[in-house]
């Protein structure tokens, strides 16, 4: 079904007037939100309206025309639903009446549907009193990201394990779904910022985080109940998610400490959290083999890079090849823009050399390899992503070491077989701990000049 036209301004004006008259508190503003405000509605979409009513702080609120207080003041919320005729069809008008001060305060809180991600959702002011117009006439409603809730993530895995031990399949599924909704809030520490406009967009963004454990997308879908599986498989997926997230967020122990305290942050670094997860894992690991790769992200030694396997997100392009002659296209499936892919001149392994330099000084930091998909991820996430020839998997520089490379620009050379990647380097670029990989000077001699 295609998009539906936004109801005529007369329709919205009529409803704004009707809701003002029907309110049991003085109305200060009426806001249209949801799919109609985003201009993404279909003919089946609700018309979502927020009616913002006055708040008198600690004083009683008086109903117009009365002398006695109607009710004590304070945060207020009520919902009403209407079915009305529009353009020959019935339209569901969903109304949320809210205390205006608590409504404004709520914009400073994470959205409970956004998987911990920050929200920027379009809105449209239909009517407001002059003294409140400036504060609530917002073209978008912005809500912050949730804090990294690692402690709650671990506790929820305990609930999954407890339900599994008690042979409670419904409890396993409920707890696993809660756990999956927490994962993006923790992984956000290691990923580029992304904002969402709707619950559907939040799910897509949560599943497509570029820095994530092996099999992350599949395990998220299993835990959320969006892919069929028995309770044992769901519980095992929950365990893999949490175990895979730990090495990715270990470099961000400082941020974890600000939220959950220093003990959990220290336990994350010294291995106590992993020991605790192994205890829970004995109740969650499936008896039979799992038909997919569940290898953990390798824990790096000091100063060492780590690799992050490719996500399970759908991609297009040539199928993976195990060997053979060079092909004109990519060796692995990719979402790279075909116009860019056509300019690449690849090795027989489908790779292009990437020369990495500091964007401010021009200093050459390292040389690595990219295939089409690694280049796509680099261009679309702003994080330098490479292909490991030795391990046969993608890796994001700094995913576990904390030595991130934030991409400022990427240029392709005249032959199409090399890339120049300008980055903002955080920490050392070399796995030895040096700023650059090119720290060993070689002697250069030349024939003695003759007089």
TrEMBL record:
Free-text function comment from the UniProt entry: Catalyzes the hydrolysis of the adenine ring of phosphoribosyl-AMP.
Location(s), subcellular: Cytoplasm
Entry note: cofactor: Binds 1 Mg(2+) ion per subunit.
NCBIfam families: PRK00051.1
Keywords: Amino-acid biosynthesis, Cytoplasm, Histidine biosynthesis, Hydrolase, Magnesium, Metal-binding, Zinc
UniProt organism field: Micromonospora sediminicola
GO terms of biological process kind: L-histidine biosynthetic process
Gene Ontology cellular-component terms listed: cytoplasm
Protein name: Phosphoribosyl-AMP cyclohydrolase
Residue numbers binding Zn(2+): 414, 430, 437
Keyword Cytoplasm attached: yes
Pathway entry: Amino-acid biosynthesis; L-histidine biosynthesis; L-histidine from 5-phospho-alpha-D-ribose 1-diphosphate: step 3/9; Amino-acid biosynthesis; L-histidine biosynthesis; L-histidine from 5-phospho-alpha-D-ribose 1-diphosphate: step 2/9
Compositionally skewed regions (Low complexity) per UniProt: 317-333
Domain Nucleotidyltransferase substrate binding: 151-232
Family per record: Belongs to the PRA-CH family.
